[in-house]
Specification:
By secondary structure, the chain is an alpha/beta fold. It folds into four domains: about 100 residues, OB fold (Dihydrolipoamide Acetyltransferase, E2P) (Beta Barrel); about 140 residues, Rossmann fold (3-Layer(aba) Sandwich), CATH 3.40.50; about 50 residues; about 40 residues, no CATH class. About 45% of the residues lie in helices and about 20% in strands. It has a five-stranded mixed barrel with strand order 3-4-5-7-6. A five-stranded parallel beta sheet has the order 9-8-10-11-12, sandwiched between helices. A three-stranded antiparallel beta sheet has the order 13-14-15, with no helix packed on it. Helix 4 packs parallel to helix 8 and helix 5 packs parallel to helix 6.
């Protein structure tokens, strides 16, 4: 430490403000280079520059704290007033205010781990936005054929899923979009993959996931960008992250949560399996029905083969021919009777008609007169002198002109 060279008043040293401030800062920094401080966050503020300013306090005292952007960029949770935290940093002095403060290099929530707290905070916020609501979830297609998969190309998850798909012969089309599933930048790759598959379209469903691991290993699926990408996907999405006991933010947002990658593949082919089973049962029922029908027809055929007709076919034909002759004779006799009956009836009607016919009256010496319009003359008053009349007799007609009409 470089000694100061203050002015003297007599034997008394006189320091400038900046000199004493630097002296104090130097003393504090040399004494408190890396300390752990526990306290409650208050006056929390995140500046547009990315720096975080807040106060750490307990029941008796408080200290200002600064968490610069280059140090807080990897902070997993969001600090807020009232949160109990443990900070690691160095103590120094802000010269312009002459205020000592801690420059935070790392922050952890007290009690809960940082990742667990970050998970709960994001889950609460997205749930309030409605991203987990059942109303916005899309149904998984009943018979999907084009399946997109977002996962590591070398992980156990893709091998487990492909093993399921290879056992089926449904003409499935699998499109793998390879991504990193853990580590820095994994969440961005997963987000980009989901967006790209949606831009390409022509997929029935998308599976997003990976095999099991620790909370740190699965953390990419707890990142907000991944949750947002799943939420805006117009293709139904299945999450398949870790094991059955593992829950991630992606599971809550996805349209369907499969507890393992294998379960996700089983979900995709489930209805295909049921359809194949129904078709198998249907085919079996048809085969059984056809077998029964053929047996019945075979039995009927055997019965016919043993019948009199098949044993003496010519005799049976002769009998049918003889029967046809008998029926023909019966029909002819019936028709003759009908014709005779109708002829006699016609004669009777003709006789009656002859009796009632005006021509018959003429044969007996009577005549019929018609006026000039051809109307039958029944009353003399309808005739006038000078008109022409026609008189019909037995052998012909007489045309006359009226000279006088008498009463």
């Amino acid at each position: 430490m470089t000694p100061l060279a203050p002015e003297r008043v007599g034997t008394q040293k006189i320091y400038k403000v900046s000199e004493i401030t630097r002296q104090i800062r130097s003393l504090l920094e040399s004494q408190f280079q890396a300390i752990w401080i526990e306290g409650e966050v208050s006056n929390f503020k995140r500046h547009s520059s990315g720096h975080i300013y807040f106060t750490l306090k307990d029941e008796s005292a408080q200290i200002s704290a600064v968490f610069f952007a280059n140090a807080n960029q990897f902070l997993k949770f969001e600090p807020r007033d009232g949160l109990q935290v443990i900070c690691i940093g160095r103590i120094s002095v802000y010269d312009q205010r002459g205020q000592y403060q801690i420059y935070v290099q790392r922050m952890e929530p007290k009690g809960l781990g940082a990742l667990q707290l970050a998970f709960l905070q994001l889950k609460e916020r997205l749930e309030k936005e409605g991203l987990f609501s059942a109303e916005r979830k899309k149904p998984i297609p009943v018979y999907p054929r084009r399946i997109g998969i977002v996962t590591s190309p070398t992980g156990a998850a893709i091998h487990d899923m492909l093993k399921i798909f290879r056992l089926r012969t449904y003409g499935l089309h699998i499109l793998l979009y390879p991504v990193r599933v853990q580590g820095e930048g994994a969440a961005q790759e997963i987000e980009d993959a989901i967006d790209e598959l949606n831009r390409r379209g022509r997929l029935d469903v998308v599976i997003v996931g990976r095999g099991g691991g620790s909370l740190e290993d699965l953390w990419a699926f707890n990142e907000e960008p991944v949750a947002r990408a799943i939420s805006r996907s117009h293709i139904p999405t299945i999450s398949a992250v870790g094991h059955e006991v593992d829950w991630t933010i992606a599971d809550f947002v996805a349209d369907f949560r499969a507890h393992t990658p294998t379960a996700a593949a089983e979900k995709v082919v489930m209805n295909w399996d049921e359809l194949r089973e129904r078709l198998r049962h249907g085919r079996q029922r048809i085969q059984n029905a056809m077998t029964t029908l053929l047996a019945s027809k075979r039995e009927a055929l055997d019965h016919l083969k043993e019948s009199y007709t098949f044993r003496q076919p010519l005799v049976y034909v002769h009998q049918l021919s003889q029967r046809a002759d008998e029926l023909l004779r019966q029909m002819q006799n019936y028709l003759k009777g009908i014709i005779q009956e109708k002829r006699q009836s016609f004669r009777n009607l003709a006789g009656k008609l002859e009796t009632l016919s005006p021509l018959g009256i003429l044969k007996r010496g009577y005549s019929i007169t018609f006026d000039h319009e051809g109307n039958l003359v029944q009353e003399i008053k309808r005739l006038k002198a000078g008109e022409t009349i026609l008189t019909r007799v037995k052998t012909g007609s007489i045309k006359s002109k009226i000279t006088e009409v008498g009463v």
